[in-house]
Structures are given as C-alpha cells and as structure tokens.
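Students often ask why we bother encoding 3D structure as a string. The short answer is that it lets us treat folding as translation between two languages. Here is a chain of 335 residues written in the first language.
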Amino acid sequence: MSDRFYRLNLLTIALAFVVITVGAYVRLADAGLGCPDWPGCYGHLDVPALGAETEAANAAFPERPVEAPKAWKEMIHRYLASTLGLLILAMAWMAWRRRKRAHQQRVLPWMLVGLVIFQGILGMWTVTWLLKPLVVTAHLLGGMTTLALLWWCLLRQGRHFSGWAAWSRLRLLAGVALVALFAQLFLGAWTSTNYAALACPDFPTCQGQWWPDTDYAQAFTLWHGLGINYEYGVLDAEPRATIHWVHRLGAIVVAVVMLVLASVLWRAGGRDDRWRWLASALLLAVTLQIVLGITAVVAHLPLLVAVAHNGGAALLLLVLMAVNHASWQMGARLS
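And here it is in the second language, the structure alphabet:
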C-alpha cells in the first residue's frame, strides 16, 4: 500500500518494537539508573565525556558515579523513545490533516499521543523514584499497549481481514485470551522489576519443590513508599519465589487459552483457510515464548535470551491483536 499514513504507521510499529526490546535490555543489564537524572544524563543531553565533565558529574551525584557503558544504554533508549514519540505525534497531525478521508483513523492516533506522553512521565518516575517496581511495570505495560494500539491502527487503516467470516464465539474467546495475556505481561514485568527471574533456579520445580513456600502478601504489595532504592530488589527470597512461581502458573493458563483459541481458529479454517494462517502464527508465537522462558531459567538468565523473551511477548501480543481484529470484521457469520 502506497498510502503515506500507512507507511508512517508501519515505521512507528517497527520502532515501538525496538524501543520495547532495548528497554528490556537496559533493565536486564541493570542500567535503568545509568543516568540518575531525567531527561538528561548528569545534566547533559548525552553521556558526560571523560575528564572534567565526568569529574563534575561525579561531584554532582556522589551517590552514583558515572558508569559510561550503563549511561549510554539508558540514553540510547531515551533517544529511541523520544523519536517514537515524535513519530506518533506526526501520525496524529497527519490524521487530523486527512480527517475527511474515508477510513482515515482520527481518534486512535491522538489517543496514542496521550499514551506516549504518559509513558514519558512514567520514564521520568522510573529514574526519580529509583526503579520503583510498580512504576517500571506500568512503564513496560504502557510500551506494550502503545505497540498494540499502533498495530490496531494499522490493521484498521489498511482494512485488513475485511470480509472474513466472523464467529461470535471466536470474538469472546479472542477477547478472553487478550485479557489473559495482559495479566501475564503484568506478572512477567513484576517478576523482572522485583529481580525474581532467578528466584526459582530449577525447572519444572521451584527450589526443588513442586509447590514452594509462598508469601503472597509481600510478593504482591504494590506500594512500598518513596525514597527507597529498588535497584536489585528489596524483597526477601520467599516473596521473590512466590512472584516467579505465580508467573509460571500464569504461563500455563495462557498457554492453555492460546491452544484452545488456536484450535478454534483451525476449525474456522474449514470455512476460510486464512484462519489457519493465524492459528499457525499463534502456535508458533506461543511455542517460542515457552522455549525462551524455560531456557531463561535453566541457563540462569542469559541476557540475550531474557531480552528475546520480552520481544517474544510483544510478538505474541501482535498476533493476538490480529486475531481480535479479524474476528470483528464484517462478513458472513460462521455457525
């Protein structure tokens, strides 16, 4: 499609995916506080240079001396996120200019502008509130939501899946699957932001038990107050194991829901083969996530595997958004 808005939307989706994966890399590389201030880095728009600039930065932030590799990771993520925000603003402006055209998305691009502004605020709080788990988790979920809405905008703008045979029961199941996935995204983010990814270092058991000792009250206390440095986590071993274990249980629930949804899509393919393509894509995305999740545990959280697990979650979200979009298109209704 040669439409400029469509091409800009596609570019923005690609960049949003990059921002999510780079953000995961920054978090998992323990570089979230690589720059202790916001929006700059030690008062600069880039990382302070060696020599006088670094000495001045260390004097201004004696509690966090300059670590250039971490600082550059954080700033590159900020540059990418800022560029994403500008592209989304350009989308909204273009949508307003073309508001009288048929099928032009008008409201969704401006909703994305509001969302990306809130994401910027969360990014600031992530630093100024010292990696508070609730804020960092919300920031990750906001990134996933931004990606999902950009993808939804593209699908609607391009009139994808128009005329596919709709199935009311499929709509309900696809919606349930989307809710289940977002719940699992929260659990995954909560696991990461509380540094609980290795709280269960064995698989399929957790610390040698099929059901480990748990402390749900501490594990899911969302607010611990301000002024606490949450870098490397503040929870004891038992609450961290609880978070990790619940994330594993959530993965089982999501996998079952996705398998049921894929089987329904495959059945729908008896009337329209295109549903089977979505079923196959869903199965591949779920399988990839399961493999990456298990590998992250048994290999003791290699950085690239952990980052790929975040990227795999984004990919699964895109597939599931496509399923939801297709299930709501106008067309002959399957019985």
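Translate back mentally: Residues 237-268 form the longest helix (32 residues). Keep this in mind for the problem set.
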